[in-house]
Amino acid sequence: MTQPRLSMRKVREVLRLRNENPSLSARSIARACRISPTTVREYLDRAKALDLPWPLPAGCTEDELYQRLFPEPVSPSVRQAPLDFQYIHLELKKPGVTRLRLWQEYRQRQPGGYAYSQFCDLYRGWLAGEAIVMHIPRTAGEEMEVDYAGTTVRIVNPQTGEITKGYVFVAVLPASNYFYVEVQPDGTLPHWIGGIVRALLFFGGVPRILIPDNLKTGVKRANFYEPDLNPTFQHLAESFQLVVLPARVRKPQDKPHVENAVQQVTRWVLAPLRDWKFFSVAEANQAVQALANEVLDRKMKHVGKSRRALFEEIERPALRPLPERPFVYTEIKLAKAHLDYHVEYDHHYYSVPYTLRGKQIEVQAGEHILQLFFRQKLVATHVRSRVRGGYTTLPEHMPPQHRFVRDVLRNDRDGPGWVLAQARQIGPRTAEYVQLLMEARAFPEQGIRSGLGVLSLARKYPREKMERACALLSPDAHPTYHTLRSLLQREKNLSAPTDASSLPLPPHVNLRGPQSFLSKEDGSC
């Protein structure tokens, strides 16, 4: 680094203390002036070599004194060849280009030119003088800043005459100040994500870093060190391999280039359209983009080139290529599976496996397909429905008892046919009993419910036991579900044959055997 310049007061004080107190050491002078002893010795040695008088001449300025103490070892011929600071400034925007590299190239052209430290000092001095109109150098293809303009456009409904606001989205590449602008019907998540995607397509490439504002649309929890992004916004960043670095809250200096781009759009695009009335967002975009193209093609005074020319020269080659697969907007949210193993999204309910009830499910909703994930594993895929309050349920997600009830309601509108078909699978005696049971009811719905009760008993008792019990009760004039259940519960072992006519008579004192019917003459019946 170059020697730091002392103030005129410090220089005078050093020279005064030495000339008025010759016995005073350099270290004592350094302590008195609060500077380094090495600096004191260097100033005293240079003053002695130049034989500077004390007191100094009255007209001696700080620049003249410093120039006498530290003359520049540069030949006059080199000084007459000024540096091209605009060229240096533009080259520094290119990836991998540093001041050291530019200085080395400069010294190859000018072997006796400025030293590296003086080269940097002169550039910093020029940059400070241009600070009013010059931005801090940014590497081409490194960043993209996005924001909404504060000014809106008027959109008139041609049928009703209702006036709504059109929100202006702006994205800019800082190295070239090349920007993209569009009008959106609102600032909700789909349009926010869509604006970023369309901006990347407009630029024809992808930068490394995306700097948005701390909109609730994209950032769930604002934090400079670890921001919590909206899952859909995070999905966008992963798809385009972007590093998202949101600006701090109420800190516009974190995204100065898009603030400047918004100002340019407001002045040169929106102000000329302030009295216009548009009848659609597409019409507004057509007018906005026409004026924006004029701004992009206009030459910038401090650079000598237009934004478009500068973009083509330094920015486009530095951008990464777009992904091969186009980005598909997918809204992502977390939802808890209800006790009925359904997840609510957009006022509709979609099923997940019943074992996941009460679990946190990640919903990824596209335009036509909705996917449900549990711990990053796909557990369900549904066709998206727009029916408010409706249910979309897959049979494989239901527990067995729910599938049973669903099959009753779906397979047969009246119910009896399906119930009888299920009873026949148990056995003919059970089917006969169910038929009698349903026919004995005044209303079909009552018979269906009683038949379902019989089928439920078949899940608790063996098929053979069901058949024997139904055979015993079939002759009953008033068959009921409760009668069959009581018989099954009471008789632990129904060992009788299934044919009721072949059942043996129980022994009883009043029952006579076959010998009672033999004739007295021949001993025959």
Keywords:
Nucleotidyltransferase, domain 5, alpha+beta, 525 residues, four-stranded antiparallel beta sheet, 17 strands, 5 domains
Question: Which helices and strands, and how do they pair?
Answer:
Elements: H1 8-20, H2 26-33, H3 37-50, H4 62-69, H5 76-79, H6 85-91, H7 99-109, H8 116-129, E1 143-148, E2 153-156, E3 163-173, E4 178-184, H9 189-203, E5 209-211, E6 219-221, E7 228-229, H10 231-240, E8 243-244, H11 256-270, H12 281-297, E9 299-300, E10 305-306, H13 307-315, E11 331-336, E12 342-345, E13 348-351, E14 360-365, E15 369-374, E16 377-383, E17 391-392, H14 400-411, H15 416-426, H16 428-439, H17 444-458, H18 463-473, H19 481-490
Parallel strand pairs: 1-5, 5-8, 13-17
Antiparallel strand pairs: 1-3, 2-3, 3-4, 6-7, 9-10, 11-14, 12-13, 14-15, 15-16
Show unreliable segments.
74-80
Radius of gyration: 46 Å
Strand segment count: 17
What is the tally of helical segments?
19
What does this molecule look like?
The chain is built from 19 helices and 17 strands. The protein has helices spanning 8-20, 26-33, 37-50, 62-69, 76-79, 85-91, 99-109, 116-129, 189-203, 231-240, 256-270, 281-297, 307-315, 400-411, 416-426, 428-439, 444-458, 463-473, 481-490; strands at residues 143-148, 153-156, 163-173, 178-184, 209-211, 219-221, 228-229, 243-244, 299-300, 305-306, 331-336, 342-345, 348-351, 360-365, 369-374, 377-383, 391-392. The strands form five sheets. Strands 1, 2, 3, 4, 5 and 8 form a six-stranded mixed beta sheet that branches. A four-stranded antiparallel beta sheet has the order 11-14-15-16. A hairpin with a 2-residue loop joins strand 12 (342-345) and strand 13. The chain folds into five domains: 8-69; 76-129, no CATH class; 143-318, Ribonuclease H-like superfamily/Ribonuclease H (Nucleotidyltransferase, domain 5), CATH 3.30.420; 331-398, no CATH class; 403-499, no CATH class. With 525 residues, it is of the alpha+beta class.
